Amino acid sequence: MSGTVLCAHEKAIATVTLSNPGKLNAIDFAMWQQLARTFSDLSADDRVRCVVLRGDGGQAFAAGGDIGEFLTRRDTLDHALIYHGQAGAALQAVFDCRHPTIALIQGACIGGGLEIAAQCDLRICGESSRFGVPINRLGFSMYPAEMEGLLRLAGSATVREILLEGRILSSSEALAKGLITRVVADAEVVDEAYASARRICAGAPLVASWHKQWVRRLQHDIPLSDQELRASFAFLETEDYREGLSAFLGKRQPNFSGR
Fold it and tell me: pTM, whole model, 2 decimals?
């Protein structure tokens, strides 16, 4: 049976769950397809202010790709291009989501699971979580479009170490190498991830989207144009800006509308 990607909403927080019972939530082709569609839909949903991405069951975020599928889905060059093209589209959809995203990581975050988590804005994990891409032991290399997110996140030195050694990293080592944002006790990781989501939701949603946009833009080594600098003040015309100032001056909590 194929795994599935579930999506649930609780007020402004959407939870996307990778579910492949019995396989530590390994990602199969159907799940890559569903992941792309799910994040494309969420990105267009104005009711959403934050997305939490997690694995089903609490034992693993995702233990890589479903290796059993490779005998049929990657048995030829053409099949491999289709498979990894879909995986790349799913990773891009997570990265392009205009809402802030949090990877809630429990247990194994390996291979394709680490590739997915790398696309999120924040990665919060439990102490017993582990990370790596040991595909050198399986005799295949990482697809370049999938490597891009890890390079952007942790840099070439860490990616070389992960891929060349195939070593599995502890949560503390992953934190030191910049692969994750925060480590908490295993019993606290769910609460911490959703507390982070609520803090994000308390802010102005347009501002969150703009911050994501400008962080991405400033990573390109090209000076901002005058037009871009002017565009960075688009918030001046928003209702949320007026609400934020009014709430601050009136010593009350703001009620942002996303307009």
Answer: 0.93
